[in-house]
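REQUEST FORM: STRUCTURE PREDICTION
Request ID: SP-0412
Submitted by: Lab K.M.
Chain count: 1
Length (residues): 534
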Amino acid sequence: STPKADLFAADRWGRLGAAIEASAFDTKGFPIVAARERGPIDNNADVEYANVTGKVEFDPSDRVHTFLRASRFSENRTNAKVGEVNSTTWQAASAGVQAQLPDSSTVSAHVFGDRQRSAFNFLAVTNAATTRNVVRLATDQRVPTNGIGGMAQWTKVFGTRHVVSAGTDYRWVDGDSEEDAYVAAVPTAITGVTQAATKSLRRISGGTQRSVGAFVSDIITPTSNLVLTLSARIDRWKNYDGHNLETSVATGQPTANYRDDLPVVTDTVVSPRVAALYHFTDSVTAWGAFNTGFRAPTLTELYRQFSVGAVTTRPNAELGPERLTGGEFGLNVAPVRNLTARFTLFDNRVKNPVSNVTLSATLAQKQNLGRTRIRGVQSDVEYRITPTLRVSGAYIYNEATVTDGGAANAALVGKYLAQVPKHRGSLQVFWADPRIATLALSVQMQGMQYNDDQNVQSIPAATLTEAGYDADFGAGLPGYTAVDVTAARAIGRMFEVFIGAQNVFDTEYFVQTNPSTIGTPRLVHGGLRVRFGR
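STATUS: Completed
RESULT:
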């Protein structure tokens, strides 16, 4: 009788469910500066974080579903330099509802809010080109950010040929970078900041961004073989209350950079999209699309100054939005049983892209370039050898270049976008038998890429040689290959043991110049997963 009583209660009062998920991670990390360039001030880049998310779902009827979710995340990092640390805490909450109306249409809506607090300090290496054994405190930053938003959408199926959706979304975000800058005096002590640093400037820079949009789409099926998608968005973006409140600590007076009236920037963009998919046969499908898009600059790009390596990047309060126009054409084929292949050609043009523009050897700024073009081809192939064993591979050729640098950056025309390799590929072998184990082998291949907008930065020849690369490689970051493996086995319904290794052969590869910064070395991990409930 108990199950019947529970079922009756559920039918009358609705169904209630809850879930909680938590994770924690802690590692002592690894050095990120290449061994040849490493000095006494270089230590491990490590991270410690914890995350917890709770969710409650309530369905008052079969037609209505509601949820409430809350999350908290905290993280502490050491940036591989003596005394340079970061920390972040983030709390978020969201709630939503989805309901089926009497006319069989569906409405959904959700709202969210988040609060983030971050702290950073940046240390300058005063002898970066030699022994790297003296650092000074350059800046101390606190970055509070708050955001709220929401969306609503209506969807209805008309007959057998149309699925129509329409909706709106809204987002508001406010943030500041509260920064103390210190006198650029070289410490007398070796290896680290062991004497009090003197503040020179106080700076509070930030602003508020508001965006609201509306969208409509119609998925049309005129025949059983053809699917058409017509959609459009309109976005209204505004950035306001911009300020850079910079004062001298010595005098308490505003500096020449003090601004409490940074320009208000606003724009309205319409973004249509047209796509089609056609089934020639059960094993051959083609599709194509014409896309447009829009991205407003972030508060970091507009207001927050930061440093990476020896380069400080300044924000730009006058940035405009990026606009994308592009298209793609693809073909999906299954020539034989258990074999599928997909090929996609793409060509995208971006107007006013936001880029890091080099001003000097140690200084860059966020700026809108004139135009960039990103075009190429992507391919994916998968073959199921047996029900438990499959092999897959992928390759992408991606040519991303500047076609118009704008009036101030004409010399960038023809340059490749930073940190976008032309060639990338992967290979995976996956074997899974629930009675035994799950095994996976993955090979990731990445071609050469440039580290800067001018395509001139390079890794020193001696550092390349020590890492096993050609000393005459030239500008850019050399390509590399890395191998990962994982294995897992279920033990009953509650437990799963796992072990894995990333970068199995401990390949040393470069991800940044000045200093030459290396990626993750061999990382072996293992553990036990425990599942509670059904």
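NOTES: The helical segments are 2-13, 299-303, 461-466.
Reviewed by: T.R.
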